[in-house]
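Ticket #4471: structure export looks truncated?
Reporter: QA, pipeline team
Priority: medium

Steps to reproduce: submit the single chain below to the structure queue and open the exported record.
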Amino acid sequence: MTGSVDITQFFGVWVSAILTLCIFSFLYKDNPLYKFAEHLFVGISAGYWFCFYFHNHIKPKLFGSLAKIPEDAYYIVYIIPLGLGIMMLLRLVPKLSWMSRWPISFIVGTFAGLNLINYLQSNVLDQIKPTISPVTGFNVDSISNLILAIGVLTGIIYFFFSAEHKGTIGIAAKIGIWFLMVAFGASFGYTVMARISLLIGRMQFLIFDWILYSKNLLSF
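Actual output as written to the record:
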């Protein structure tokens, strides 16, 4: 072996390459190597995010606030989330697991209420604006606005089941199906391209960061 070797980097590259190959082994069939890599990934991810949320949220925001109660009585309200958190952990106790439903219901309801405005803005209002954009003249923007309006209207008509899809309504519904298929196809294609990008990244790692890197270090 020539030159100085960074043992930590060398060990990390080999471990990453072996685990990557273990994941790729699923392409042949389900096997213990794949299960080991999968369970290791899930376990490390769960442990990482537990430590992250504990040190960045629970410890400073909950325990830190509770420690200020002697100085400011306002922070006594943080006893409520502490109690809800304990009740959620009671799900691990079969006889008391029913108490975990209260904090879960509280979290789901609070999350829905807080995100209602955001989703209303992004999924409703921001999509209505392009649909009602004016069609003036013969240019790219006008044609795009016209196609968007037709796609939205025909897509809505396709999901209108109170009237039988015959005649004009049937034609509009068929046009709506084509728009929906194009939208689903574009979404699926985007997902596939994202996965292909991940595959390319892993293949580049195996070829350049593992094989060539190890070949240069282990050359005699």
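Status: closed, not a bug. The export was complete when the record was re-opened. Leaving a note from the reviewer for reference: The chain has three domains: 1-67, 73-131, 137-220.
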